[in-house]
Amino acid sequence: MLRLITEQDFKEFWPVFQSIVAAQETYAFDPEMRFEDGYSLWCVSPIKTFVFEGEDGSILGSYYIKANAMGPSNHICNCGYMVSENARGQGLARKMCEHSQNIALELGFEAMQFNSVVSTNEVAVKLWQKMGFEIIGTIPKAYRHKRLGYVDSYVMHKPLAR
């Protein structure tokens, strides 16, 4: 079930968040980030943040939605998604992305853009493409991957249908 996040939810999700960030394979967040900074970044700054709650009440994933830019570009949104390692491969990212597109339309956004999809994150790239996102740009050596060194990142975009 997808629902709005609470601070307690983020506390429960923090180990997942922290491990994803520390892996330095998908998110350009400080691997030494403290809880307070992570909470602010993921839960306070965005317009809305959701959790995917399992049947047992555990938090299996989370996503945020925010405007990608301000002023004349605030009609395009940006989202970030995280899924716990033990829940991967179950379609949660797809469900969260579908949900986020509906929320984006409710909030008046006309398009969704991902600013930095790490090129080596092939599962995410393929999923986003299946969901109608196009790679509209490649940023050479934009990401310092912990194991692979410098790798490209993609800018991906999708118009949202009303």
Automatic annotation (TrEMBL):
Entry keywords, A to Z: Transferase
GO MF assignments: acyltransferase activity, transferring groups other than amino-acyl groups
Pfam families, A to Z: Acetyltransf_1 (PF00583)
Signal peptide positions on this chain: none
Protein name: GCN5-related N-acetyltransferase
Gene3D superfamilies with a match to the protein in the record: 3.40.630.30
The species this protein was found in: Marinomonas mediterranea (strain ATCC 700492 / JCM 21426 / NBRC 103028 / MMB-1)
All copies of domain N-acetyltransferase, residue ranges: 1-161
Tagged with keyword Amino-acid biosynthesis: no
